């Protein structure tokens, strides 16, 4: 009887792993099959020329650069906000602090808010300040989207930091600031994972940038200009009736996937290097 | 129950104290110290002068306040809001709980060895020179010299000299404890505090640490909290016995172990309770 139970669970576990893996592979297969033929050097090195969306010359460099700008600045801003928040939650407030518990609950709620809501919220704020759809607007909306992700995932690691480490540093005569620097070293692998997660969530999201960043055929040169992004490039091209343009949507999806995969591997590599000194 | 208070400074064995500033107290002197955690009276009116340049062991059953007392010496309770402290604690004649006392400067005078060694998340050499570095020592060569000197002092140099750049966490736990001692010594303290510093170590490593304490006691004032009476017997010059938050007896090791004045001390030492 026991043996049968073990067997059923083993099959279940293997089954779900295989299921997930095959779905991932199938997605990759579909985008490669449809996207690869349309993926050319022009595609990733040129901005759209007139009639691109009707199947003529050009590429999606505007969207690639737009997405990279958006995610880079959002991640930098979010890190500057998230790390201090986590430090405050874990090392200034007490372990059982009610404020910390309430803050964590709030971040969980924010985590669960759909991205379109952030987009709509960002849009309202922009209208209030009289801003147009712009790179800045997109950066703010994406930051709002990924800050909860970042805080929660760094927090998970920060909770595990032993109090001994804080005391060991302090007993050497370190100030609070110096102690926080040591803690940050210990947190680095966690921070790199957090960055990876938020890049994944931020770069692939179409709803947040739809109203806030807009869409344009050129690469933005200032924060106030609108900017294109890969998810929207996919969205617009896929809704075209022209088959060639639809295939280009898959090529854009392929580019987005490649960017995310590259960043993931880079993050894993750095995470391993950074955890070298971890205690 | 009648409790004996700690002997006053006058009748203490050899509380010699002279620091450069002309301070006439020993390095550490506790006066009427009381400590409360959430209104629980944890340390009750402690009076204690710790003799310089010798090993003082604080012994007593679990929960008697040994560790709490030790942590008051370098103000490690500062972070906890629940803790209230009254009384005076002098380190080199400076009342460390006075309002304008700067805490980092007090902590710099003491090296702390925790129960479990806690290396910093950096390389071996960076661990040792962390203290000097935050206190403003610069220059690669100078820092290397400090690291070499201190690692030699704890007998670790030979074992790690070829891998100074590798992570400290790769060392064995005994080596890490010696590394932590070297790290503490590198800030040039006058006092070393040990909070059951050998309890997480294997017998051989703890023996090494004990021998280290013995070899450096002519330069430092060492205060150890220990759970093992045998360890106190092996290395202590002076012994303080605590029970239920009170300091019951303080004296030379010989006196406390062989001719305890107090009934409770006698009972504890003969293994009546633990």
How would you describe this protein?
- The complex is a heterodimer of chains A (279) and B (274).
- Chain A is an all-alpha fold.
- Chain A has two domains: 2-38; 41-277, MetI-like (MetI-like fold, Orthogonal Bundle).
- Chain A has helices at 2-35, 41-45, 61-92, 98-112, 115-128, 135-158, 163-170, 176-203, 207-212, 230-238, 243-274.
- Chain A is globular and about 70 Å long.
- Chain B is an alpha/beta fold and 274 residues long.
- Chain B has a domain at 119-187.
- Helix content of chain B is 32%, strand content 23%.
- Chain B is globular, with a radius of gyration of 19 Å.
- Mean pLDDT of chain B is 85; it is low at 1-19.
- Chains A and B meet through helix 7 and helix 8 of A and helix 2, strand 6, helix 3 and helix 6 of B.
Features:
heterodimer; A: 279 residues; mainly alpha; MetI-like fold; 2 domains; 11 helices; 74% helix; B: 274 residues; alpha/beta; 6-stranded mixed beta sheet; 4-stranded antiparallel beta sheet; 10 helices
């Amino acid at each position: 009887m026991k043996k049968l139970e073990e067997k059923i669970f083993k099959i279940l576990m293997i089954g779900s792993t295989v299921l997930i893996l095959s779905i991932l592979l199938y997605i990759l297969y579909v985008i490669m099959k449809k996207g690869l033929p349309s993926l050319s050097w022009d595609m990733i090195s040129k901005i759209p020329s007139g009639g691109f969306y009707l199947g003529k010359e050009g590429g999606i460099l505007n969207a690639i650069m737009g997405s990279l700008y958006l995610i880079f600045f959002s991640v930098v801003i979010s890190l500057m906000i998230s790390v201090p928040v986590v430090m405050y939650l874990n090392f200034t407030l007490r372990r059982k602090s009610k404020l910390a518990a309430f803050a964590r609950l709030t971040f969980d709620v924010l985590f669960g808010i759909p991205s379109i809501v952030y987009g709509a919220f960002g849009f309202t704020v922009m209208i209030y300040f009289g801003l147009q759809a712009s790179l800045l607007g997109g950066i703010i909306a994406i930051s709002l989207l990924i800050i909860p992700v970042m805080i929660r995932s760094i927090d998970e690691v920060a909770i595990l930091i032993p109090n001994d480490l804080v005391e060991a540093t302090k007993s050497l005569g370190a100030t609070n600031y110096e102690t926080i620097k040591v803690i940050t070293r210990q947190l680095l692998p966690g921070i790199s994972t957090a960055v990876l997660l938020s890049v994944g969530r931020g770069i692939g999201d179409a709803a947040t940038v739809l109203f806030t960043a807009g869409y344009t055929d050129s690469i933005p040169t200032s924060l106030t200009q609108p900017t294109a992004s890969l998810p929207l490039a996919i969205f617009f091209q896929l809704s075209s009736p022209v088959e060639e343009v639809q295939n280009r949507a898959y090529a854009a999806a392929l580019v987005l996937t490649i960017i995310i995969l590259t960043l993931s591997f880079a993050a894993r590599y750095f995470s391993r290097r950074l955890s070298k000194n971890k205690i | 129950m009648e409790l004996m208070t700690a002997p006053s400074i006058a009748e203490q064995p050899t509380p010699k104290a002279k620091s450069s500033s002309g301070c006439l107290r020993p390095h550490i002197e506790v006066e009427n110290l009381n400590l409360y955690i959430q209104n629980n009276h944890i340390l009750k009116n402690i009076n204690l002068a710790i003799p310089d340049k010798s090993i003082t062991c604080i012994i007593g059953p679990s929960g008697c306040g040994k560790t709490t007392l030790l942590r008051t010496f370098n103000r490690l309770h500062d972070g906890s809001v629940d803790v209230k402290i009254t009384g005076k604690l002098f380190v080199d004649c400076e009342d460390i709980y006075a309002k304008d006392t700067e805490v980092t400067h007090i902590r710099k005078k003491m090296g702390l060895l925790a129960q479990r060694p806690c290396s910093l998340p950096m390389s071996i050499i960076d661990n040792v020179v962390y203290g000097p570095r935050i206190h403003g020592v610069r220059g690669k060569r100078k820092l290397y010299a400090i690291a070499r000197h201190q690692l030699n002092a704890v007998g670790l140099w030979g074992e790690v000299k070829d891998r100074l750049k590798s992570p400290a966490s790769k060392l064995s736990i005994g080596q890490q404890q010696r590394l932590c001692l070297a790290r503490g010594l590198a800030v040039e303290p006058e006092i070393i505090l040990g909070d059951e510093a050998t309890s997480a170590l294997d017998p051989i490593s703890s023996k090494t640490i004990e021998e280290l304490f013995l070899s450096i006691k002519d330069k430092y004032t060492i205060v150890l909290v220990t759970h093992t009476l045998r360890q106190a017997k092996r290395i202590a010059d002076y012994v303080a016995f605590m029970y239920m938050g009170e300091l019951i007896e303080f004296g030379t090791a010989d006196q406390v172990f062989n001719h305890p004045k107090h009934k409770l001390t006698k009972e504890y030492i003969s293994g009546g309770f633990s």
